[in-house]
Amino acid sequence: MIRIGILGYGNLGRGVECAIKHNADEELVAVFTRRDPSTVKILTEGAAVVNVADIESWKDKIDVLIICGGSATDLPEMTPKYAKMFNVIDSFDTHANIPQHFANVDAAAKEGGKIAMISLGWDPGMFSVSRLYANSILTEGQTYTFWGKGVSQGHSDAIRRVPGVKDGKQYTIPVPEALEAVRSGSNPELTTREKHTRECFVVLEEGADPAKVEEAIKTMPNYFADYDTTVHFISEEELKANHSGIPHGGFVIRSGKTGWNDENTHVIEYSLKLDSNPEFTSSVLVAFARAAVRMAKEGQVGCKTIFDVPPAYLSSLSGEEIRAHLL
Amino acid sequence: MIRIGILGYGNLGRGVECAIKHNADEELVAVFTRRDPSTVKILTEGAAVVNVADIESWKDKIDVLIICGGSATDLPEMTPKYAKMFNVIDSFDTHANIPQHFANVDAAAKEGGKIAMISLGWDPGMFSVSRLYANSILTEGQTYTFWGKGVSQGHSDAIRRVPGVKDGKQYTIPVPEALEAVRSGSNPELTTREKHTRECFVVLEEGADPAKVEEAIKTMPNYFADYDTTVHFISEEELKANHSGIPHGGFVIRSGKTGWNDENTHVIEYSLKLDSNPEFTSSVLVAFARAAVRMAKEGQVGCKTIFDVPPAYLSSLSGEEIRAHLL
Q: Facing residues of A270 across strands?
């Protein structure tokens, strides 16, 4: 049995707990929390809830710690810290800061003699490895990533900060014509506006001016100004009834040329349609937890990404089984 | 530079030659052939054409040998034979015989202290690794593979063996309704007939009876009897003008459940749309040739499949570069 600890029990931590239930060779040993443990109710019978201050005493009781924190402030501090004591997994997703995070975590994991896997999930994660495979096979070509249809947490938060907004949800939606142009193999140049649209469902504070709120959202720099944005005003009940899920997904498409004179075109597409963004991310984390434990048993140390993991290490099946049934 | 040899110069060998041209860190050193070398014209200036009888003298001039033979009789004999002298790559695609082929090649490669990678291409190959990733992430679910639209060489050969047929091409086509049912996440049970249709373009011998030929094709066991098959009779000119390409492609789709009570559904899809089946397969082989050389340099030996190769080894870019640009 692979003994797993979860650090942080929000949407992602709960998703990891559910994913462990779907893997017969893994068990949840403990959830570590910054809250008072008596206030945290988990689903798994027999697993402990422990204050994170006591985590060090669990060093020999856990094979891998899945760190379920945010990328803005939690993970840059937590992952290096705990990589000194545990094999760790995180889902650090601030793309621009990955090289720095990698360096910090690598130094810490090597100091502790542990394996640390960072930036797992679907983007970064499965989308990244799809980009790498496709780029390595079709060396002359262009890669496109589209996100959605799905809820963007960051954009929903941005809406909720607009004066007059009581609550809101934002969906990122790929433009169908852009997807089709990319799939045709024509390698189009696409602007930000041409690739995605943004759809907002907004509950107003009493007395707020809808025109002013709509204007404030649509012109918000970075978040909305570069996109065609639609704003719908709905009631609180409707928001709760129809927009409380966290679906997401997207597409990685590469098209490229082969042949002595580049005469043939090929299109590789990888796509996800997810009912629950955090539960899918969690399922990826839990598969890579198995790989981390195997790599650690081989004596490997340091920071790894999805690019470094032989796919066979993700499966609970043996080499013979995967060659016979999946190859 | 990675020095590559090609054994066998048919569609696949020529595809490998073209793919090497698209990879700046690889060079074609020699093509080995069973034919009289003076009759084989290759495209690459400076590369040798050598009779396969003399291959052993190239042992130190080649880093990896890509064996471009057929799976029925060539590869089961060739890959173990040459894995004793070279790091080798093949595209062995008789799924049922992979375990036996793996065992033979593994023993030979270990004897020679070499790396051998078998069953590369897209199915087996990229489709296999897509199945493995998807199955490892969504452990409760169902995986479906669809092929096409594309030319099936085996089925085209079968048509051409029918009395009265002068020439012919067969396309395998996924049934759109089956694809949609799978994408919906409903995990349908699908029969062979429900998944694919077969479309044949046939040139008749003079005086042949079209009704008899059509009947012979449609009732052919294993090849056509279990499918809804359409037969079109066309002229030799039309066959040449419209059906001389070798396009192919397909879809690997897995849908599965997550959540404490399996309340959420996810769909993972990987698809290919290929103008040239052999050129895409070749592009995969050439990317894995790079990986084989790296693994050999690390001192690894024996038979490997796509499941054993860390994706990073496929790229000509460094770890820093792929983390910065593709993660």
A: A252, B270
Q: What is the pLDDT along chain B (327 residues), one digit of tens a residue?
A: 999 999 999 999 999 999 999 999 999 999 999 999 999 999 999 999 999 999 999 999 999 999 999 999 999 999 999 999 999 999 999 999 999 999 999 999 999 999 999 999 999 999 999 999 999 999 999 999 999 999 999 999 999 999 999 999 999 999 999 999 999 999 999 999 999 999 999 999 999 999 999 999 999 999 999 999 999 999 999 999 999 999 999 999 999 999 999 999 999 999 999 999 999 999 999 999 999 999 999 999 999 999 999 999 999 999 999 999 999
Dihedral sign (CA A99, A101, A102, A107): positive
User: What are residue B246's DSSP bridge partners?
Assistant: B276
For B309, nearest residue in chain A (alpha carbons): A310
Give the total residue count for chain A: 327
Residue A198 to residues A170, A221, A224, A227, A230: CA-CA distances in angstroms?
7, 14, 7, 7, 6
Q: Using a CB–CB cutoff of 8 Å, tell me whether A21 touches chain B.
A: yes
Torsions phi, psi of A177, nearest 5? -65, -35
Taking the CA of residue A80 and the nearest CA in chain B, the distance in Å comes to 18
Which among A237, A143, A133 has a CA at the least distance from the CA of A190?
A143
pTM greater than 0.95 (yes/no) = yes
Q: Closest by alpha carbon to B106, among B129, B90, B127?
A: B90
Contacts of A43 in chain B (CB under 8 A): 260
Q: Tokens at residue B65, please?
A: 């040998």
Among B95, B99, B272, whose Cβ lies nearest the Cβ of A268? B272
Cα Dmax for chain B = 68
A56: Cβ contacts below 8 Å, ≥ 6 apart: A85
H/E segment holding residue A26: strand A26-33
Burial class (CB in 10 A: 0-12, 13-18, 19+), B52: middle
